[in-house]
Structure formats: C-alpha cells, structure tokens
Amino acid sequence: MNLKKLQEIAEEKKLPQYRAKQIIRAVYHEGVGSFLEMTTLPKDLREALEKEVQIFSFAVEKIIAAKNRQTIKAILKLSTGEISETVFIQTKPGMWSACISSQAGCAMNCAFCATGQNGFKRNLTAEEISDQVLFWKRYKTQQNITGTFSNVVYMGMGEPFANWKNVKESLRILLDPALLAFGARGISISTSGMPEGIVNLAKEFPQINLALSLHFATDEKRTKYMPVNKYANLAALRGALKTYFSLIKRKVFIEYLMLDGVNDTKEDAQDLAEYITSVGNAYLLYVNLIPYNTTASSFTASFTDTMRAFRNSLFRRGISVTVRKSMGADIDGACGQLAGSSV
Ligand code: SAH
Ligand code: SF4
C-alpha cells in the first residue's frame, strides 16, 4: 500500500492517529480490498482514500498454479509498464513461503539464469517489493489455503543488494508488527555475491538469513558464467563472509547450482570443500545443491547420481550439505526461470 500517500492524507485531513492505524490494520491484517468497504470511516475520507491511495502498487496480470498446486506464480504489471514476478510455494505440508522480486529483470547477467538473460529493467520500490507479500497474504485467505505463511525469500527477479535502499525499506515494512508482522528469522536474502551487501545485512539486520549463490569454486569458472565475479571475486567474498562471522554467528547458505560437466566433478567438489574450509567457521556454512532448471541457455542438469556423489564427497570432508528439490518447474516459476515475460 502507498503508505506515504496515506500519511499525506492523514496530515492534510488532520486525522487522529487511531484513524491511520485503523486503516493500516484493515489493509494489512483484515484483508480489506477497497476503502469503500470501510464503513466505519466517514464517507468523504473513504472516497478520498479510494481515489488517492492504492492498495497495490501493481496490477496482477495472471496467476498460474502448478499441477500439484504447491507452487503458484503471479505475473505483475508495474505502474510504469514493466513486468515482474512473484511465487508462492508450499515448502513443507502446511508451510508457505513467498519468493519475491527486488528488481524488474537483473543486470548481473548470469549465464544460467532466465532473469539475467533478459536484462535489467528497473529497481522495484519498497512498496512494490512488500506488496508482493501483502498480495500472497490476501490470496491465501481468499483462496482458503490452509497452513502458515511465515517465510519470505528474496529469490525472485533481481539482485537484492543492488537495490539495497529499497530492499531495506521493504524489510522494515515486512518486520513492522503494525504492517506485515513477519519474524526476521523467517526472511532470507539471496545474493549473487556483493560483499558490501553481505556486511550491511549482518550489521543492520542480523537476524535475517543470508544465502550466497556461489555456484563455482574457482575464479576462472565463476567469472566465465557469473560476470559479477569480475567485480567481487572469491577472495573478496571470503573476506565478506569472514567479516559477517565476526559480527554474527549465524548459519549462511551456500547455493550451488549443479550443471552437467561444468561444475559437478570430483575436482569441483574438492575445490568447493577447500573454499568453504578457507572461510573459517565452516560449521556455519550450509551447502544447498540445486538442480538446474531449464532455461533458454545451453546448460543441462547434472545427473542424480552425480549430484549424490558430489554430496557425499562434501559430506566426507565434514561439510553440511543437502540436495534441494526444485519446485514449480512446470510453470516456469522455479529459481532462474523468472523471465518476466507475459504469458
Ligand atoms: N539474484 C539473487 C537472487 C535471485 S536468483 C541471486 O542470484 O542469488 C535465486 C537463485 O536461483 C539463485 O541462487 C540463482 O543462482 C538461482 N538460479 C538462477 N538460474 C537458475 C536455474 N536455471 N536453475 C536453478 N537455479 C537458478
Ligand atoms: Fe540476477 Fe540472480 Fe539471475 Fe544472476 S542468478 S542474473 S544475480 S537473478
């Protein structure tokens, strides 16, 4: 919701504080779809709000559910015409998580990612980011979806730390008990590897989870497929992680996409284990092996047996590792498939 506009109207009309709170509660907690429904408000105020304050900063173009109904994708049309996407995922029975975008498109240009391949459009505002969570909260109620919704992951389109100012403001809206009222421990941010973002997160939001999309454990390979590595290489990321752990002792997830013949050999597992050990505090680093989801690029996913061998190889070296399940691939709603195309 456009909170700034609401504040302006509240000031202009000299509304008592309880009024503004009542309006905020109705939108964020009671699922009011239009201010006109709020018959407890004076008529002129209702009409002014309806005219000037938008509950959603985007239009929902389309909602697509996977066959198993465990992944639901919404295509959003921003007020300036660009397209962004958000996904609602049942991660465990009765547990729902929103995967939200921080940008329309992405400038990082990772070779394996559909978002990156389609280029950067613009940063999302704090409101456009937090409204994705508001949208799923209401959708869940309207569709009578049972279970809890207490997780939000910044793993949709875009690099969150390249839009830190707005992401930070969106986090405040998510965490504010009067607004979306999420717990910090249920929120995770995934980065392609921007060192100052990693350190800022530890300093400013120490309870929010961090995921680092490492994917390659040598600079040669990482630079080849992730141009961001030219700006901050593995040594720079090691430095950022060391600082992170000097500030907080919190588990960090290392995302590792498994690409057939590219980064899935025994040597790759060894390189990864050595890199993780070199960071120090290796017990706080958890490797997630991610199956590659098909995009227009020429990569193919590693075989299940190869992934298992890779997992075992890390495990034997004392590293915490799990093979992640991919969800939503049949609706192009899985990681790396958010292309921003209107379907
Ligand atoms: N830009 C941030 C967050 C969004 S991407 C980042 O890169 O971390 C969310 C995750 O999906 C990242 O770990 C990303 O590397 C991964 N991903 C990208 N393309 C993928 C693909 N084709 N299959 C599976 N995961 C992919
Ligand atoms: Fe951007 Fe993340 Fe995709 Fe890389 S993987 S292009 S950083 S969204």
Q: Which features characterize this protein?
A:
single chain, about 350 residues, alpha/beta, DNA polymerase, domain 1, TIM Barrel, 2 domains, two-stranded antiparallel sheet, 12 helices, 12 strands, about 20% strand, binds S-adenosyl-L-homocysteine
Report on this model:
By secondary structure, this protein is α/β, with parallel strands linked by helices. It folds into two domains: 3-52, DNA polymerase, domain 1 (Orthogonal Bundle); 58-331, Aldolase class I (TIM Barrel), CATH 3.20.20. It is built from twelve helices and twelve strands. Strands 1-2-3-4-7-8-9-10-11-12 form a ten-stranded mixed β-sheet, covered by helices on one side. The chain has a two-stranded antiparallel sheet with strand order 5-6. Helix 6 links the parallel strand 7 and strand 8 (187-191). The longest helix is centred in the middle third of the chain and has 17 residues, at 126-142. It is elongated and about 70 Å long. 43% of the residues are buried. Iron/sulfur cluster binds at residues 106, 108-110, 113, 115-116, 157-159, 192, 213.
